[in-house]
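Data availability (excerpt). The following record was deposited with the supplementary files.
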Amino acid sequence: MKNILVTGGTGYIGSHILVELIEEGYEVVVYDNLSNSLHTVLNNVFLLTGKNIEFIKGDITDFEKLDTVFKNNKFDAVIHLAGLKSVSESVEQPLNYYKNNVFGSLQLFEVMALHNVKVIVFSSSATVYGEPKSLPLNEEMPMGIPTNPYGMSKLVIENILADLFYSDPSWSIIRLRYFNPVGAHPSGFLGENPVTPPNNLMPIIIQTALGKKNYLPVFGGDYPTDDGTAVRDYIHVVDLAKGHIAALRNCSELRGIQTINLGTGQGYSVKQIIETFEKENNVEVPYKIMARRQGDVAECYSQVNWAKKLLGWESKLGIKEMCKDSWNWAIQNKSDI
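Predicted structure:
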């Protein structure tokens, strides 16, 4: 299994996955609408790998365009990353999130079935667990109700994939539930630089440390956590990318459907991330406590036993590396941030 379609491949996570795929010898085609990423990221992937990647601009809601792409290529598998991903934005624009994430995924799955491409690694999210009833979050626990439309869209897609598999067991499906990706490629060539105003913590920390923002807004200082700020399971994006390679290998060997957390199993508060970033990079990150955001939960961190057991994968990089690699990328690219 060597020919892979990556939807959303020019994004933050996608670009890091491309590097890992190429280093493992896969042939890759990227399909992306560039709504929150830049085509130029592929130049940096080339600098790291020496490999030009075929790029096709298109939207996953466009059935005919997808159908043409599959007619013109012989794919063995799909890594499906494309979709909108902001919790706060999804609360404001729920219909847009369901259209892009759910309807777009349906179009993709229909085209895959039409062309008999039945191997997929799906980018899901820990938000599908909803308000945690207990921690750490594990894959066997009953699903709660996601607290925002983004999480609900991911859960709907997970359920669609389950129904698809039960209707046709020849599919091989892995649903990867991401926790909170941060960090950058250690070379400084790839990092998180969204085209639209960032909603994730690390890009705003970076903009604040660079002096491009006066302060970092910390949403919620009264959560029932040790320091009052929200706790998340942050995972280095390079570890996350390697998790997809492990999942792809597993898909090629087994038929079935699996759901696997990709995290570190360790929760850190927003204040802990800020303090680590300041200490490791010798910079200041002024912040202000703001009201909680609708749709956010107090704590969220993973149990990662299944990833190790089923995929032979576990995270290797901690929050020090996440903070140092993020800053290394930022100072090399500060004119573009």
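Summary of structural features: Residues 94-114 form the longest helix (21 residues).
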